[in-house]
Amino acid sequence: MAASTTASTTASATTSIVVDNVSKTFRYQAHPTLKKVLQGKLRGQSTSETFKALDGVSFEVQQGESIGLMGLNGSGKSTLLKLVSGVMRPDQGQVLTRGRISGLIATGAGFHNELTGRDNIYMNAAMLGMSKEETDAKFDDIAAFADVGRFLDTPVGNYSSGMFARLGFSVAVHVDCDIFIADEVLAVGDRPFKRKCLKRMKQIRESGITMFYVSHSAGSVKRMCDRAIVLEKGRVGFDGDVDEAIKFLHYDGDDEEPDGEELEEDERDDALANDI
Amino acid sequence: MSQAGDAPPVAVRHDLAHVPLAPPSRTSGVLEVFRRRYLLRLMVRREIQARYAGTAFGLLWSYINPLTRFLTFYFVFGLLLGRGLGLENFAIHLFAGMVLVNYFTETVTSGTRSLLSNKGVIGKMALPREMFPVASMLVSLWHAVPQFIILVIACLVTGWWGDGPMWVPDAVGMGAALLGLMLMMVYGTAFGLMFSCVNVIFRDFQRIVQTFINMVPFTAPMMYPFHIVADGTRIPSSWLSVYLANPVAEAVMLIQRGFWYPTCAPNCAVDPATGAALPEFASDLYPRGFIMLGIGLALLVLGQWVFARLEKTVPERL
């Protein structure tokens, strides 16, 4: 109730995303066999146990804000992204967005291994809502950013995983969107490409596009975002200042020492973010 | 601040103040598919390209397969069985029906699998999901084109070499064939829409569909003449109305009217013992066709309704 009243009072022309008391429930086992169902019935157990991936999540994002979405594995980040991007619908509550959405829930989703990089660029751009003319106009930029060279006209099945990811990212960042969703973009790609990605995302952010950025890296969230939402077991645990969010998550290393590798990764991301 | 600073902010450029807040997943059903024709065209092209990718003959396979099938029909049904059943140009009788039946069964089976086989995209991108069964229907239609071409060639060659008259397409016949094609298109899409969602929720469904699809070619008068169903000696005549209520049987007779019927004279079907003329098709062929088209369109609306109800839970069940 409280959430809906705040939503209506603060809803203005520049509201970009409204997530209003949203819940999403999943089943543990989606496809039980007949045998399992019967066994369950005989033993008096239910085979369709459910869990709440999101439970009463509410927040609002203004146009141009860049939000870092953080939380441990399984806290509901990906589900929330899927609801915001329109892939899934909430069971309860509502999600509203304004304008065109682009982004990466997973790079290279919808790529067809048999088709060439060129054809896949057109295909992927069309899936993200771009017209033929729009893609034609941006094609050279997309190809240059992806930097796959002569491989552009070979089937993407032959690409290295890095090239595959670059192509997907390249299409997504060239969509003329109002909301940009980025899920673990830095998980793939080598250092030069990571740097290019971060630079491009900074541009996106500065052009007034609402950004929704998911990352475990405290450093990059700190550099990229001006607000952080922390999910905890499907609920909003914290919503506000990035530094406080990192403290809330104990990602700042005060309470427990992260192992060396993680620290190193963080430092590298920090260094990258500083580079740009 | 640097590069992006030159352009006005997105909110101004896209005039976001006048863009409404809306659920990101909102679509207008099948109509949305036609609003995004460009994506549909790319998806259909992708499927067509992928089918023969890496083969040397490429699209030629779409001609080789139906051609060899027709020649088989010609030898087995035309030369061996046709005379005994009193059918002229049995191979065309069968092949004409087969073109539509293949189209229909391919639409339904690939439509049923369409959501499951595209789960990588569906789980990650917000698309109107009706797109997938509709694309399956169009891909099947594309593959029916070479079969139609082979059918036309077969009709012409039969007229040239056979005893019958030259095959000259008549307006009524072509209209009938078109009506038959539309019937299969509408019913195939309606079933594809309904079954694709059911198949995600209940994965045994595609196997159930396959089982029934295997029977479909036998439910239409193409491997046997219509008169053996209609004469009341083999099956009770009260069952005939059930037999004729099948849109596949109706469509098969309609296309036979367009392609097979003009190739034979004076009668297409005769009693092999007495030589008396027998009915080639059901009576009221055209009114039945139009009524079935009406029912099919209603079924399509129902299919869209079922799809809209079920597709909400599709991404999480994939």
Q: Structural class, judged by helices and strands of chain A?
A: alpha/beta
Distance between the termini of chain A: 43 Å
**Overall geometric form of chain B:** elongated
The CATH class assignment of the largest domain in chain A is: Alpha Beta
- Biggest β-sheet of chain A: count, sense, barrel? 6 strands, mixed
Query: Could you tell me the number of beta strands of chain B?
Result: 1
Can you say what the CATH homologous superfamily of the largest domain in chain A is? P-loop containing nucleotide triphosphate hydrolases
Keywords (chain A): ATP-binding, Nucleotide-binding, Transport
Pfam family, one (chain A): ABC_tran
InterPro entries (chain A): AAA+_ATPase, ABC_transporter-like_ATP-bd, ABC_transporter-like_CS, ABC_transpr_TagH-like, Bact_Polysacc_Export_ATP-bd, P-loop_NTPase
Family (chain A): Belongs to the ABC transporter superfamily.
Quick structural gist:
Chain A: It comes from Nocardioides ganghwensis. With 276 residues, chain A is α/β, with parallel strands linked by helices. Helix content of chain A is 41%, strand content 24%.
Explain the overall architecture.
Helices cover about 40% and strands about 25% of the residues of chain A. Chain A is α/β, with parallel strands linked by helices. Chain A has 2 domains: about 1-100 and about 180-275, P-loop containing nucleotide triphosphate hydrolases (Rossmann fold, 3-Layer(aba) Sandwich); about 115-175, no CATH class. In chain A, strand 8 and strand 9 form a beta hairpin. The radius of gyration of chain A is 20 Å and the shape is globular. The N and C termini of chain A lie far apart (about 45 Å). Residues about 1-10 and about 255-260 of chain A have low confidence and may be disordered. By secondary structure, chain B is mainly α. Chain B has one domain. Chain B contains 14 helices and 1 strand, in the order H-E-H-H-H-H-H-H-H-H-H-H-H-H-H. In chain B, helix 8 packs parallel to helix 13. Chain B starts with 9 loop residues before the first helix and ends with a helix. The model of chain B is unreliable at about 1-5 (pLDDT under 50). Classes of the chains: A alpha/beta (about 280), B mainly alpha (about 325). The interface between A and B is large, with 51 and 43 residues.
